[in-house]
C-alpha cells in the first residue's frame, strides 16, 4: 500500500487523506522537511552499525535497472561496489530501513510497483530478516528525495537490486539491534535472539525494537556481508503471502494515479498532432474558450492542451480543439509493405557481439532462416496519467513512471528548475510492460501545471494517444545460419540482428514527447545501445547452448522512423523467438527430438533442469496429437543469459482452412533462484505467457506514409478470452539461498517460439514472420 | 438535474446529460472502481451493471439512465466485507496491475446473477468484450468459477449473495 501511502502523505499537504484503508502514513513522502529532520524531530531513529556476517548474496548481472535509460539519474553511481544489490549505489542503511521509537518499521525501495507484486515480495524479505511479522513492515516505494535512487524499475531487476539490498540491510539491522540489546542487557550477542520485533534473552527478558533504538541515532554504511537467515528456517520468504494491493483494487479503493483526487484539482487533455512531427500552423480557440468548464488553453509551439473544471469537459474541449487546429503534416513514415527492406538499408552501426572459435568435426548440413518482427505496442489498458501541481516555484508530479529520479532529471531540464524544486512520487498506474506513455504524460502534466499554477492538474491520455504516441517495441530482423556435423551436433552458428534502440527513456528532456513540440523544442538524445551482458537489441542474441563456433552481430539502426523504446524483454523477445524457432529447424535437420536436441547442446545444469521439468510435466515423451491440426512445441531461454531460466512447452490447435492458431495448453518451468513468493512468480509467468501469446499471434502497429493507423483496439487487436489456452501451468524450481534472478520478463521469448514450433509441428510448415496471423499460417500451408 | 440510482442510493447529478456515466461516477460521485480504458466500448474496463446487464459506462450517457439501477464494484461489498465476487478475486490473486479487474468483476457479476452454473465456454464467451493486458485472464476465469461456486452455495443455504442494489 505504499504508493497509496505516498499519495496519502502527499495529499495530507492539501489537508486530505484519500481512502487508504491503512493508518495514516508518515508525512515524509512528499513533504518539505527532509526525512532526517523528521526523524530527529520525531524522536525516532535510523539504525546503522557495523557487523560481520558470514554469508552474502553475490549478485550477477549488469547495471541497476537492466542498463536502460541514460545519465547519472538512470544509473546511480556505485559508491560501494563490494556491497550486495542496490546497497552498492545507496550504501547508507538508513536509506533503506527506519525504526521509530514506537517500534514502527518503514522500509524504503527505489523500485516501483508495476503490478508485478514487488511491494509484497520486498516486504516479505524485510520481515523475514528483521524477525517481525509480515504486517509490521510499511514499505515506501519510489519517490524522489524520500527513497533511494535505484534507476529504473526495469529489466527484471527489482528483486536482484532492491530485494537483495533490503534483505541484506534488514539482516544487518537485526544484528545491530541484537548488539545494542546485548549492551543494554549486559549479555553477549550470541545469547540473544530476534523474535517478533523484539530481542529476547535466554532468561526471558525482552526488548522491543522501538525501545532499543529510542533516543539514539546511527549513521552507518552497510557491510559487504550479512548474517542472513538459513533458508531452511524461513517462515515468510517462500510463502504465498497474498498481495497487499489486491484488496483495495477489487473494492474500489484509491489504487492508481488515475484515482487521485486532490483538493482543487482540475483536468486537462492534450491535443496531440495527427502525426509525427506535425506543426500546429493555426488555431482559432475563441469558440472553445467559451465551452463549459474551460479554464485555460495552453499553447507552446505545437504543444496544445486544455484545462477544465471537470474531466469530460476536457474531453469535449479537446475534441473541439482537434477540429479547430490546422496542422502541417509531412509524410515521414516508410511504406509499411516494404518496411523490412527499408529498415535493412538504413545506416547502422556494426556491433560484433560474439566471435568464438573451436575445432570441430566437419559440417555435414547447413540450415538458414530469416525472421521478422513488426513494431509492437505496450498497449496499457489504462491510458497513461499524471497529476502535477506547481506552486511556490515547486513542481510535484504523481506519476507511474518506471524511474522517478530519471524522470525528475528530465523534468528539471524541461522546466529549467533545480532538482530540489521538482519531486516525482511514484503512484501506480495501469501495467506498463516497459516504457509506455508514463513519462510523457508526466511531462504534459508538468507543462500544463506550470502554465496553470497553484492547482493540481490531472492529465490522462486518450486511447488514441496511447496507441499512437507511445514508444513502441522496435521492429527487428534476424538472420540465422547453423551447421551440423554428421552426428547432429551444432558446429557453427551465425546470427545477425537488425534493430533500433530499445532505450529511448528520459534522462534527457528531449526524450519526453511534449518537449519535442514546444516553441523551443528539445531534441531527443541520439540512440545508444545497451551494452552486453544485458544488451538491448542484442539481448539474448547469444545462445546459451554449447556451440563451438559462433558469431553474433547486431546492426544497430540509428534512424527511427517510428518512436521506439523499451518493451518487456527488449530484443530478447525476438531473438529468442528466432533462435528457439531455429533450434527446432536444426533439430529437424538433425532428425532429433527438439527437447533432446536442446539437452544435447546444453551444459548449464539449471537450464537442463527447467528443460527436463517442462518436458516431463507436459508429458513430452508420450505426447500424441489427439486430433488433426494439433501440434506441440518447445522453447527455452535464460533471460539475458544471466536472469531467470524458463522453458515452455505448448500445445496448439491450427484450423487448416483458416490458418487460425489457438493455444491449447502451456506448461512452463522456471528457476528464478531463491523463491520469495511462489504465487507472485506464477502470476508473472502466467501473465508473460498470455501476453506473449497475444504479441505472437495478433499484434502489429500499422501506419501509412504519414500517420499511425493502429490507434484503437479495433485496429490493434489483442488476445481476447476465447483465444486463451485451456490451461497454463507454471512449475517453479526453488533454489534456496541462491541469488534472486528476477522473473518479470523470462516468459516472453520462450512463449513465442514454443507457439511457432507447435504450429510447425501441427501443420508441417514454419512461419518466421510475427505475428503468426491466420493469413500467414494459411499462406504457408498453401490452402 | 438527473437522478442516478447507484448501488441503491439516489444521486442528483447536474452534469451535462450527454456526459457518459463513467465520468459522472468518477468525477462527480468520486467512485474509483470503474476505469477509463478506451472510451470507445472496446476494452470493458469501464464496465458496470444497469438493471442487471453489463454495459460500457464510457459510452452510455447519463440521460439514458434515469430511473434505472446502476451497480458498480463498490456495490459488491467493501474491503472489510467483500462480496463473493470480490472474495473470489482476492483468493485467486486474480490481478497483476488490476486496472482491468473492476470491469471484469462487473461483467462476470452480470453473468452469474442470471446463471449460477455457467459452462467454461459460457464464461469465456461472455467475457470476450473485456481486455486484460497483463495476461491475468487464466486467474480471472478461475475467480469467476470460484465466485459462481460461492453464489451457488449461498443460494443453496438461502443466503444473500453479495450486496443487492
Ligand atoms: S473504457 Fe469503456 S469500453 Fe473501454
Ligand atoms: S491486470 Fe493489468 S490489465 Fe488486467
What does this structure look like?
Chain A folds into three domains: 33-245, Aldehyde Oxidoreductase, domain 4 (2-Layer Sandwich); 257-330 and 378-469, 2-Layer Sandwich (Aldehyde Oxidoreductase, domain 4); 472-502 and 537-781, 2-Layer Sandwich (Aldehyde Oxidoreductase, domain 4). In chain A, 27% of the residues lie in helices and 20% in strands. The N and C termini of chain A lie far apart (54 Å). Chain B is an alpha+beta fold and 165 residues long. In chain B, strands 2-1-5-3-4 form a five-stranded mixed sheet, sandwiched between helices. In chain B, α3 packs parallel to α5 (137-156). At the A-B interface, α6, α8 and α16 of A face α1, α2, α3, α4 and α5 of B. The structure holds FE2/S2 (inorganic) cluster (2 copies). One FE2/S2 (inorganic) cluster (FES) sits between chains B (95-101, 132-134, 136) and A (115, 381, 431). One FE2/S2 (inorganic) cluster sits between chains B (95-101, 132-134, 136) and A (115, 381, 431).
Task: Give the topology.
The complex is a heterodimer of chains A (783) and B (165).
Chain A: H1 2-12, H2 35-42, E1 45-46, E2 97-99, E3 105-108, H3 118-130, E4 137-140, H4 158-185, E5 193-195, E6 198-200, E7 206-208, H5 209-213, H6 246-249, E8 266-270, E9 279-282, H7 286-289, E10 294-300, E11 303-308, H8 311-324, E12 326-328, H9 339-345, E13 348-356, E14 363-373, E15 385-391, E16 394-399, H10 404-415, E17 422-426, H11 438-451, E18 457-460, H12 463-469, E19 476-485, E20 490-499, E21 549-557, H13 572-590, H14 594-600, H15 605-618, E22 630-638, E23 645-655, E24 660-671, H16 678-698, E25 727-732, H17 748-763, H18 774-781
Parallel strand pairs in A: 3-4, 8-18, 16-17, 20-21, 24-25
Antiparallel strand pairs in A: 1-2, 2-3, 5-6, 6-7, 8-11, 9-12, 10-11, 13-21, 14-19, 15-16, 15-18, 19-20, 22-23, 23-24
Chain B: E1 2-6, E2 9-13, H1 21-28, E3 47-50, E4 53-56, E5 69-71, H2 84-91, H3 101-114, H4 120-126, H5 137-156
Helix pairs in contact in B: 2-5, 3-5
The structure holds FE2/S2 (inorganic) cluster (FES) (2 copies).
